[in-house]
Amino acid sequence: MFDKIVEQAQSASKPFSEIMSINAEVMEKLAEKQTSLFTGMMNDGIEYAKDLASQKDLAGIYETQKTYAEGLQEKMMTNAKETYEIMTDTSEKVSEIVNGAFSEIKKFDAAVAPQATKTTRAKAPAKSKAPAKAATESSSTTA
Questions:
Q1: pLDDT given for residue 10 in this prediction
Q2: How far apart are CA 95 and CA 88, in angstroms?
Q3: Which of 22, 39, 93, 125 sits in a 20 to 30 Å window from 55, CA-based?
Q4: Number of folded domains in the chain?
Q5: Mean per-residue pLDDT of the chain
Q6: For residue 66, which of 80, 48, 85, 84 has the smallest C-alpha distance?
Q7: CA pair distance 63, 37, nearest whole angstrom
Q8: Is residue 99 domain-resident?
Q9: Is residue 36 part of a domain?
Q10: What pLDDT is stored for residue 107 in this prediction?
Q11: Could you report the per-residue pLDDT of 34-76, keeping only the tens digit for each?
Q12: Which domain holds residue 24?
């Protein structure tokens, strides 16, 4: 009996550890993405400043700013899409784990419930009518 309880406790904690593992992986991926984005933006900013300093006319400045803004927008959009994909994939994995855990709980509940009701019925004391009889006798003597 004790072995079964230990086994059930271990199987019950398995989904939690899987979710924590997935969260750690996702946090690592997101940190890498953000680091890459920030590094890329810093490098682009340095290149933009160099290009801007070398411009001699207003048309050149405009073209440099336009190129920088478009590149920055593209990096941000790509990063947002990749982050969304990571989060969506993670959400699906966690949903599968949670649904699997609930199905395990239902299996356990279905297996334990019939045994629990048999045990409860066998151990339950028989109801006696003595307290009800005593209550009617005490009410008739006070009246």
A1: 74
A2: 11
A3: 39
A4: 1
A5: 82
A6: 48
A7: 23
A8: no
A9: yes
A10: 73
A11: 999 999 999 999 999 999 999 999 999 999 999 999 999 999 9
A12: 14-94
Q: Is residue 33 part of a domain?
A: yes
SS3 1: coil
Q: Over range 105-133, report the average pLDDT.
A: 60
N-to-C CA span, the chain: 56
What does the pLDDT read at residue 54?
94
Single-letter amino acid code for the residue at 136: T
What per-residue confidence (pLDDT) applies to 143? Answer: 45
Residue 49 is assigned to a structural domain of this protein: yes
Residue 39 region by backbone torsions, left for phi larger than 0, else alpha for psi between -120 and 50, else beta = alpha
Are 22 and 93 in contact by the 8 Å Cβ rule? The answer is: yes
Residues 120-140 have a mean pLDDT of: 53
> What token pair was written down for 107?
């299996």
* Contact between residue 15 and residue 101 where contact means Cβ atoms under 8 Å apart: yes
Nearest to 75 by CA among 36, 114, 47: 36
Q: DSSP state, 57?
A: S
Nearest one of 114, 123, 93, 85 to 23, comparing CA atoms = 93
**For residues 112 and 8, is the Cβ–Cβ distance under 8 A?**
no
